[in-house]
Fold this protein.
Amino acid sequence: MNRKFLGKIWAAGILFCFSACMTAPVTPVQTPLSVSVPVQEQEKSSSLAISKLTAPASEKAASNQQEGDILEELLAVLPESGVISVTDESGTTFQVDASDENVEKMWDLLISSHFDPLEISDELFQGAYDSIDFSFSHDKNKYLIRLYGCGESHPVYPGRTVIDLESRGDGDSNFYSYIGSISVFQEVSRLAERLRGTLRLVFSEPVIKLETGPLEGERLTAWLEMGNRFLCAFTNEEGTSRIMTFDSKTGALLGTAREAETIRRMDPSRDESGFDYQAFTDTRILYRNSKSPLEEKPFSLPAQVQPEGIGNFDRKAEKLLWAEKDGVHLAQMDGSEEEIILKNEELASLAGPFAPEGELRAASPRLLGSEATEIVIPAVAGEELAGVVLVNLEEGTKTAYFDVFGTGWKRLSYPDRRHFAAAGEQDITLVEAVSGDSRRLPFPHSQETQWYSDDFSTFLVSEKQKDVLFQGYLVSARKPEDRSRPFLTVEGRGTFEMIGVSKRYIFAYADDSQGPRYLLIQY
C-alpha cells in the first residue's frame, strides 16, 4: 500500500485526498524546492498516520461505542467552494474545484449508500486491498476517511468496502469503522478516474520534456547536469538502476546503461582518464563518460573496506574514505595505509555545549578540495544531523561546526568541490572547506528555496499564491524580501514539483492529463 502521501494530507491541510495503493508510482526525489512537504516531514507525518490507522482493534472498537452516527453526519458536509486536492491511484496529487460534478457524485454516493458499524479486524491489512482516502476539515476538526476495496480472496472481508474513519480535534483522535458493498469502492474509483482526465498544466516559460519513456515502478534516485547532457538514474523495486543520458537542449534520449545495483549519487569526476563523472552504488564507484553512455570503468571497494550503512564512502585523488562503527577511516585506493582520522568517541568533546542528547556518530564523509585534503564529516544523533567536523589533512586540524548552524538545521549539501552548506530554520550557512570561512545567507530551510548561482548570490524562491500552483522569483541574497523579478509561473490543475537546480536548468516533475514527465527549464 502506498502510504507515503499520508504525510501530505495533514501537513498541507488538504481538504480532500484520493489514493489507491496497490501500485508503486514513479515519484521524483523530494528536494529543497517543491510544492509538497519535504521528504523528512512526509516520513514523520506518514508514520504518525499509519500508527493511528493500524491501531489495535480493541482501541477502534471503543471509539465505535460513541453515540451517534458520525459517518452519516460527516458525509452530509461537502466543501461548497474553493479548490480540493486529490491524489489518485497512480500517486499523482492534483487539484479540482469543489463544485466539480464528479466530486459531488462521489459524495452523493457515499451519503446514499448503506454502511453498518464494524469492529475492524487487524487482519484487514494482511489481505489484498486497494484504498481511497478523503481528508477534509469541518467545524475546527480534521477527518480522514479511508475506503478499503477488499478483493474476493481477502481473509476477513472478501468482496466488501470497509471504511475506516479518524477524527482529530482538541488534541484527541477517535476511530470509527463501517462495512458496505464493494460496488461503492468501485464507483468512487471510476469517478476519480474521470477527474484525472481534466488536468492541464500551463507554464510561463518554455519547458523541455525528457524522453524517458514508461517508468513503471521506477523512482528517480540521482541526477546530474554535464554540459549539454543531463543524466538521470531510475531505480526499480528490485534495486537495479538505469542511467539515462539526455540531450539537455531537446530532451532526446541519447543512451541507457543498465546497472545491477542501485545508483545512490552521481558527481563530476576527473579521477579516471577518459571519464567525466562517477556513479556511486552501495559497494562500487562506476566511472563513466557522459559523451559515451555505455562506456564504464568500475571500481570496487577493497575487501577490508566495510562501510557502515548506505553511502558511507567516498574516493578522490587516490584517497579512499569511509565510515565504520568506530569512526572515519582513510586509506589509499587499494586499502593500504589505513588510518582512523576521527573516532566517534571524539565527537561529543568536539561538539562541546552544543552536543545533542544521544550518542554521536560519523556518517557519509566527503572529500573536498582539488587535492582531497579537506574532509567533511557529518555528525548524527540517531537519524538527525547534529553538526559537522572539518578535517584538514595537511594542517592536521579538526574544526567543529555545531554552533554555526544554530538549532533545527535540516539539510547538508555539497554545491561544488570546495563548499558545503547547511540549511537551518533561519538561514543557510555556506562554508568554504579549504579556508574554513563561513557566511550566512538569509534564506530559511524550506522546500521552496534553492540557490543556483555559482557565487551563491542569487536564489530561486517560490511562494504560494491563490489559483497558482507555483510562482518563482529570482532573489538577491542582499535583498531577500525583493520579489520584483518573477520567474516561472505554473497554473492549471495537476502536479508540479521542483527537484533541484543545476548550473543552467531547473529540474522538475510534472503530471497532468498528458501523463507524468520530467522537465528541464532553462533560466
Q: What stands out?
A: The chain is about 15% helix and 40% strand. The two ends are 38 Å apart (CA to CA).
